[in-house]
Design goal:
Blueprint lengths: L1 E7 L11 H10 L4 E4 L6 H9 L6 E9 L4 E5 L11 H10 L3 E4 L16 H4 L4 E6 L6 H13 L3 E4 L11 E5 L6 H9 L3 E5 L4 H24 L1
């Protein structure tokens, strides 16, 4: 089993803080095997992480968190950006065209761009896997909804820390029974459902601090847009 962080953000995300190097260092410190840097609608930092990963005895999984018209979708094992704003099905198709897998994060968290606000169960079933545990939770109810859905429909399950600071990498880890310690083998094993989850919630104080920071950043972006 390989211990994998499938959901993390670098400073390349509007709401991320730390460099790729800090994320890699934290993953290595925790003894993880692989890390996916999944910035919002941005893949450059993820590709940098892939290039640097071996220096930290890690496998880098290239990917991004795509803002589809329905909400967020993780595209893993892709090397070209998928444009935001496409329909849910078209977003999945673009990921698959690159040989990647489509994992839907926090599908029932509508306030965080969960897709179930805009699509129905039949479309969600088309994903390759469902993130059934996102460590940035309040009550855990949305995670339980996602878990029940994946169980009911026989979909592979993943966990993700959704780390926006390096310290939170590794809060929610997916153990993957892959044949090889490579990005493609890990993603194929996820597609086949060969996963076990190790999970811990993000401390509430961290989530609250991040939410406040995101609000300030959005306000600055709004004001900047008015002045342009």
């Amino acid at each position: 089993m390989y211990a994998v962080e499938l959901h993390s953000h670098s400073a390349a995300s509007y709401d991320g803080r730390d460099s790729v190097e800090r994320l890699l260092a934290r993953a290595s410190e925790l003894g993880l095997d692989a890390l996916a840097v999944t910035d919002h609608d941005e893949i450059t930092a993820s590709l940098q992480a892939v290039e640097r990963a071996t220096e930290y005895d890690l496998v880098g999984i290239p990917g991004m968190e795509i803002s589809s018209a329905a909400g967020h979708v993780l595209g893993l094992d892709i090397t070209e950006p998928v444009e935001p704003g496409l329909s849910f099905r078209e977003t999945l198709a673009r990921i698959h065209e690159q040989g990647g897998i489509a994992v839907v994060p926090h599908p029932y968290q509508e306030m965080r761009s969960g897709v179930m606000d805009k699509i129905g169960p039949d479309q969600l079933k088309e994903a390759d896997a469902i993130e059934v545990y996102n460590s940035r939770l309040v009550t855990g109810y949305s995670n339980r909804q996602a878990d029940r859905f994946a169980t009911k429909h026989g979909l592979p399950k993943t966990a993700g820390s959704d780390a926006h600071v390096a310290e939170m990498v590794g809060r929610a880890v997916t153990l993957v029974d892959a044949d090889e310690r490579t990005a493609s083998s890990i993603c194929e094993a996820i597609r086949e459902g060969r996963t076990v989850l190790q999970t811990r919630r993000t401390p509430f104080r961290v989530s609250l601090r991040q939410a406040a920071g995101n609000t300030r950043r959005r306000f600055r972006m709004f004001v900047s847009g008015l002045l342009d």
